[in-house]
């Protein structure tokens, strides 16, 4: 059973091997959510994820014979990079099995740490089974991403640092995939501060730990932007610890996570992947639950696919009204497009896209329908643009 002493020993092993990341208050986020929010910047680790803590702790305890044979791990990305990086540092061979859906940025970075990457399966479970097979065939030591006490002990060192830097924290909100991070943090935090409230967060598309502990039957999805916590089967070791030490588990939606990623980028100027934003997503979805509390969040990773980030930014702009699509109908006469664009410019909006439609419309033949994608300051500004277009004699509406 994982003990507080295991986490203290892990902290000693990790000294100088991983970064003691800052844990500081975000005043702006605190104002927005109505709680005092402290962020632990684990996305600043060398591999941009907390996962290297557990990996380093595990690999440091292997025997000389195990080191000589090498290790194998299964991961959608962050655990892979942690194992590959520290195996390379310690002179060990590492084989990493990754599901085929793993973002390319994580695959290439893992290869960059000298690991042999094997892409196998369309789900974590398939990749895990293949990793076990390779371990048996090649005599490699399997390094589990979460269901391992030495891994969880390494992750638990985060709580030691958080409570050393911010001892007044009264609530921790931690993302859950397989549960290694939460199990380690809960073990350390409960020992250091028994009164602290500990809340776990899962994406509604992968609610395995919530179902296992609460006895619920939420359906499981097939994909999520928080692929780092897209785990279909919770760990047995971690489940026992979480059931015993964690106060509650909550679910967040994809939109909550998208909003949290964008807010951290805009407000904190820090890049966080979907899984790393799950804690903030919980504060955004359940603000009353955390109001006036001193809440610690772990920004657990920053390895996000650039194309996914671009989509999140664009969708966030649409939700906030800063990117809007409007339809303008007018008489199809020379200069009408110039009038429309001039009116939009006078209203202070920028045109991102224009689509001039004559054939596929129900308007009279002498009319034209023009679709515009606009960059604006927000929803109120969009309405101002529409009003100015209407005042110029054109029909204009949001699409």
Topology overview:
Elements: H1 4-14, E1 23-25, H2 27-33, E2 36-40, H3 51-60, H4 64-69, E3 71-74, H5 78-89, E4 94-98, H6 104-112, E5 116-119, H7 124-138, E6 141-143, H8 149-165, E7 171-175, H9 180-192, E8 197-203, H10 208-214, H11 236-245, E9 248-252, H12 254-267, H13 278-285, H14 287-290, E10 294-298, H15 306-320, E11 323-331, H16 336-346, E12 350-357, E13 367-375, H17 379-391, E14 395-398
Parallel strand pairs: 2-10, 3-4, 3-6, 4-5, 7-8, 7-10, 8-9
Antiparallel strand pairs: 1-2, 11-13, 11-14, 12-13
Helix pairs in contact: 1-8, 3-5, 3-8, 5-6, 8-9, 9-11, 12-13, 12-15
Cofactor: pyridoxal 5'-phosphate
GO biological process, one term: L-threonine catabolic process to propionate
GO molecular function: L-serine ammonia-lyase activity; nucleotide binding; pyridoxal phosphate binding; threonine deaminase activity
Distance between the termini: 57 Å
Number of alpha- plus pi-helical segments? 17
CATH topology of the largest domain: Rossmann fold
Structural class: alpha/beta
Amount of helix = 40-55%
Radius of gyration: 25 Å
Quote the beta fraction. 15-25%
Q: What strand line-up does the widest sheet have?
A: 1-2-10-7-8-9
Overall geometry = elongated
What is the CATH C-level name of the largest domain? Alpha Beta
Largest sheet features: 6 strands, mixed
Q: Overall pLDDT, averaged?
A: 93
Total strand count, please? 14
Regions with little confidence, pLDDT below 50 for 5+ residues: none
Domain count: 3
Any idea what the CATH architecture of the largest domain is?
3-Layer(aba) Sandwich
